[in-house]
Write a structure and sequence with these properties.
heterodimer; A: 292 residues; mainly alpha; 11 helices; 5% strand; B: 469 residues; alpha+beta; five-stranded antiparallel sheet; four-stranded antiparallel sheet; 15 helices; 16 strands; elongated
């Protein structure tokens, strides 16, 4: 809030408080002097007596004004004045998160002391893990973890970067950045088509054998460095196995050719800043356990 | 000017209405103790209710508190039944039935709820009894209030408020015990280790009881309770009311017991004012039916005791009806009563059936919000669903998830899920269908969860299956 609007709010609030107090006090009559006197308001022949405010009502109103002033001193309300308590929505949220962390720390510490393999089957871990997965992972990998186009299935025991607990945890903590180069300019349309046919043959699918044998040569030259001479991939580089019929970006000849032509740059975000160590440990155990 | 069209106007004096001064101070009511048939009757209605109130939270059922409104867990345990938030319409229905029952009783017998069973009346009479024990009879209490502070006055006042606060505390603690396990609550309160909220609510209900039954008393009935204000809608001329027989009582006046009062032109009322002195709301029943009257019938007891002493027949003040007061008879079987009874019976029947036939399982489905559909390598279409399966039964069950509505639809992954008693499970389910079975971009798909051990324990829900356009 700029200081002008801050001042505007302060002035309006103060005027309102003063006016309300004045209206209340000005209408205060202690005694019922004259029961026959009316306020002069007449509607449909109905007149309004000019009687004093009921005492309980008057004091209740007075109390709300006092309360309001107290509130404005303690809590933020007067423009940019933060209130003597210094309360904000953010620090309240932080306090509640800290309190919850405190409450659950002992339990999480207990799990943190155990290995991922040991806790992967623990029902409580599965439940907590499922909720964390739903909040953080399901957007890409699906609620059931079976993935979708461009996002790997986490339940099929096929791992691009490896499926040991340590590797899964490293993937969660640091994220992953895939870098499959685009081969359009090097292989050309003919070369792309030949490599595609070779990959189909590698998976035992019907392929043009002439093109495939040409493709095999291209593969040895350009692809084997990452995907291995036999095409089974290299988890250290995050290059997928191309022989098991699992296709991250689709397995039709058109989709395979497109991956070759344009390259792929899949990104798995790092969760080190989002989730605490103990949560990542439980999430690792959950994902690890999805493959059993 | 005489106009034959003009109709003579007759001046009618309005019925005499007691002047209500909105600014009056409350005059403290000193009720006189009275014993009699209705006072004893109230003991028989009040004690079971009180005992029930204080003892019910201590009862156990299946290893847990028999009646526990567990707000943090959103579960209401009542004996063998557990109600979930989904059952709230039942609670609303129960309250409607209760209100309707109250109206039916009111048509029949006036405000017997107020006089005999209302907590305000019951607790007020407990407090009055304590007042009687500590400060003495009506006259002694008036005297004590007038006299200057002394050791005796202080002792008696301390004893009164101490005993009031004790009862109020027991009441408040018991009330909180319906919402928080009472065994832990009493233990925690006795060791001063209870949580802030339990302590705050116990304090609140202690003070509320103390103020309501000790200080507010009839003011709650007169100014705060809406029931008194709409009783006139429910009363008819055959409703039982506590009333003074004016034709018999007037002309009222004091007389010697031996005197031939009829010759003096007097009625049966001897103007002893006992009926006024015993009234907990401080009214004079001889002024006729008033909204302040809570129908406690203490004035009947008082008047009957006087009539006995005077050797006059009882019933100068009694339960009667307007028809009877006018010299007729009370009609018991009248359309209103029959109608109320029939409707009430139907409502109770429907409610009991609904509760008894309640299936304690619920299934809700949310379509996955990330992707409308997925296409597999072989061209099949997949949709993701988030199922919320609520096993509201006490016992664990294995639930089988079935889908129906589209040919060739298959669930990818597990179809059976084991749920603990009272567990809510979120299940992420993937359904795969070959596109040849999908005529429309969006097709209805039914889900059903069936307990494997109890086939009647099932819940169904519908969602939609999407395919590419």
């Amino acid at each position: 809030m700029t200081s002008f609007w801050s001042g505007w709010v302060i002035v309006l609030t103060t005027i309102t408080l003063i006016l309300t107090t004045w209206v209340l006090v000005a209408n205060r009559k202690r005694e019922q002097r004259d029961t026959e006197r009316t306020t002069g308001h007449v509607y449909d022949g109905i007149e309004e007596f000019d009687n004093p405010l009921p005492a309980w009502w008057f004091w209740m109103f007075a109390l709300t004004i006092v309360w309001g002033i107290g509130y404005l001193i303690v809590y933020p309300g007067m423009g940019n004045f933060p209130g003597v308590l210094g309360w904000t929505q953010i620090n309240q949220h932080d306090r509640e998160v800290a309190a919850a962390d405190e409450q659950y720390r002992a339990m999480r510490d207990r799990y943190l002391a155990l290995s991922v393999e040991e806790i992967a089957d623990d029902p409580a871990v599965r439940k907590m893990g499922a909720r964390m997965f739903g909040n953080n992972c399901a957007q890409c990998h699906g609620g059931d973890g079976r993935g979708s186009y461009g996002f790997p299935n986490l339940t099929d025991n096929d791992w691009i970067y490896g499926g040991t607990p340590d590797v899964i945890k490293a993937t969660l903590v640091n994220g992953r950045q895939a870098a499959m180069p685009a081969w359009d300019s090097i292989l050309g349309d003919k070369g792309i088509s030949e490599v595609t046919q070779y990959l189909l043959a590698l998976n035992g699918r019907t392929a043009d054998s002439v093109q495939a044998s040409e493709g095999e040569k291209h593969f040895a030259t350009y692809c084997a460095a990452c995907h291995g001479a036999d095409g089974t991939g290299n988890p250290l580089l995050g290059s997928p196995n191309l022989t098991n019929g699992i296709w991250l970006y689709g397995g039709t000849p058109e989709q395979i050719a497109h991956s070759l032509r344009a390259g792929r740059n899949g990104v798995m975000p790092a969760f080190a800043d989002t989730l605490s160590e103990d949560k990542i440990h439980i999430l690792t155990a959950y994902v690890y356990g999805l493959n059993k | 000017m005489s106009d034959p069209e003009l109709i003579d106007i007759q001046e009618v004096a309005p019925a005499e209405v007691g002047e209500v001064d909105l600014y009056q101070r409350r005059e403290k009511i000193y009720t006189r103790k009275i014993e009699g048939f209705y006072q004893r009757l109230r003991l028989f209605t009040g004690w079971p209710l009180l005992l029930g109130y204080f003892l019910l939270p201590w009862m156990s059922w299946d290893g847990r508190q028999a009646i526990l409104f567990d707000l943090p867990a959103r579960k209401f345990h009542i004996l063998g039944l557990t109600f979930w938030p989904q059952d709230f319409p039942l609670l609303a229905f129960l309250l409607i039935i209760s209100a309707f029952g109250l109206f039916a009783v009111t048509v029949f017998a006036g405000r017997i709820w107020c006089g005999y069973t209302c907590p305000q009346t019951v607790w007020t009479s407990i407090f009055m009894w304590l007042e009687q024990k500590t400060e003495g009879s009506r006259n002694q209490r008036i005297k004590i209030d007038k006299m200057p502070w002394s050791v005796e006055k202080t002792t008696r006042k301390l004893a009164k408020h101490g005993s009031w606060l004790f009862v109020a505390f027991a009441t408040g603690m018991t009330f909180v015990g319906y919402f928080y396990p009472i065994r832990s609550l009493t233990l925690e309160l006795s060791t001063l280790s209870t949580g802030m909220w339990q302590a705050a609510w116990t304090l609140f209900f202690t003070l509320a009881t103390y103020i309501n039954a000790g200080w507010m008393r009839e003011q709650v009935c007169k100014y705060m309770c809406p029931y008194a204000r709409f009783q006139s809608v429910m009363f008819d001329q055959d409703t039982l009311i506590v009333s003074y027989d004016e034709r018999r009582g007037e002309q009222r006046g004091s007389r010697k017991r031996s005197a031939d009062y009829k010759a003096q032109g007097l009625g049966d009322c001897i103007s002893c004012e006992l009926c006024v002195q015993v009234c907990p709301t401080g009214i004079d029943i001889r002024d006729g039916l008033q909204y302040e009257c809570i129908g406690c019938a203490l004035c009947i007891d008082a008047c009957n005791s006087v009539m006995d002493k005077m050797q006059y027949p009882r019933g100068l003040i009694g339960y009667t009806s307007e028809h009877q007061l006018q010299g007729g008879t009370t009609h018991w079987l009248r359309p209103r009563i029959i109608g109320y009874t029939v409707v009430l019976a139907i409502m109770v029947g429907i409610f009991s059936y609904t509760v008894a036939s309640r299936i304690p399982v619920e299934l809700t489905i949310i379509r996955d919000r990330n992707q409308l559909y997925l296409t597999t390598d072989n061209g099949d279409i997949e949709n993701l669903y988030e199922l919320h399966l609520l096993n509201m039964d006490k016992h664990p069950h294995d639930y089988l998830i079935q889908i129906d509505g589209i040919e060739g639809a298959a669930i990818v992954g597990d179809t059976t899920y084991s749920l603990e008693g009272g567990e809510v499970r979120t299940i992420n389910l993937r359904v795969r269908i070959s596109p040849e079975h999908l005529d429309k971009p969006s097709t209805a798909l039914q889900f059903e969860a069936i307990a494997q051990d109890v086939p009647s324990l099932r819940a169904a829900s519908e969602s939609r299956f999407m395919r590419p356009l």
